[in-house]
Design a protein that fits this description.
Integral membrane protein; about 250 residues; transmembrane; transmembrane helix; single chain; membrane; mainly alpha; 2 strands
Length: about 250
């Protein structure tokens, strides 16, 4: 284990990235445990108040990101300073992205259906950073040989093709596929050649006069969402907690 860590993490200068990812994941998990305990009325924890104002943990998260980011810029790539700055940054990022939905909606939607977006963003972020840590480079550069890497034209053309495929997947209404496709090009290729999601820019432009393509796209998305949405929601509830049931206003008669 020590040899693997030295060869694959420390020597390539990936120790700060590992520290940041570890701090990010642990912070998110600990924060969710504490917020779920507060929600259930258990334990010694409670919401932070200042003059009657509820201070969300995104606030210290932003401060820690600033401190960790500037610390990383000021420190060398190797050494204790870089690792410490990475940990501070990871903690801050975990706190901020745990309330991503709150920032997006500018409302306290933490325990609502919209709050699921925070869990999804955290999972996607951790997965992408994990791929980078494992040695994958954006736009398929990691798949090139040493001779190809020395050829600037080959590198630029590879990046351009893979960027185009990721952009094509994005235009077809597949943002997650585009994100992961930027790291693993085969995913971008699959997203680029498959049918677009209904309502996506590609579908509005190219399926407008193709009713059969629109029908196939709608049917495929229906089966896909029916198969995976339930599983995805169960995983999100397991990780972040189940949202509150929406309050239905009483109908006056």
């Amino acid at each position: 284990m020590g040899h693997w860590l030295e060869r694959n993490i420390i020597e390539p200068g990936k120790l700060p990235l590992l520290c940041a990812l570890t701090a990010f994941v642990l912070t998110f998990v600990i924060t969710r445990v504490i917020t779920r305990l507060i929600r259930a009325g258990r334990g010694p924890f409670g919401n932070v108040q200042a003059g009657g104002l509820h201070i969300h943990h995104v606030v210290p998260g932003v401060l820690l990101i600033i401190i960790g980011g500037f610390g990383a810029v000021a420190s060398a790539r190797h050494g204790v300073g870089a690792a410490l700055s990475a940990v501070i940054f990871g903690v801050g990022a975990g706190l901020v992205l745990d309330e991503f939905a709150l920032i997006l909606h500018l409302d306290d939607v933490y325990w609502t259906e919209a709050g699921r977006q925070s869990v999804e963003v955290v999972v996607v972020t951790a997965a992408l950073v994990g791929l980078l840590l494992a040695g994958f480079s954006p736009f398929g550069v990691n798949d090139l040989s040493q001779d190809e890497l020395q050829d600037r034209g080959t590198v630029l053309s590879t990046i351009a093709v893979n960027f185009f495929l990721a952009l094509l997947a994005l235009s077809k209404g597949k943002p997650r596929t585009a994100l992961f496709g930027a790291i693993i090009p085969i995913i971008a290729l699959i997203g680029a050649i498959r049918l677009a999601r209904p309502g996506s820019p590609w579908a509005r432009r190219f399926y407008r006069r193709r009713p059969r393509a629109r029908a196939r796209s709608t049917l495929r998305i229906y089966h896909h969402d029916r198969r995976w949405t339930t599983l995805s929601r169960k995983l999100q509830d397991l990780i972040g907690g189940k949202p509150d049931e929406p309050v239905v206003p009483a109908i006056r008669r």
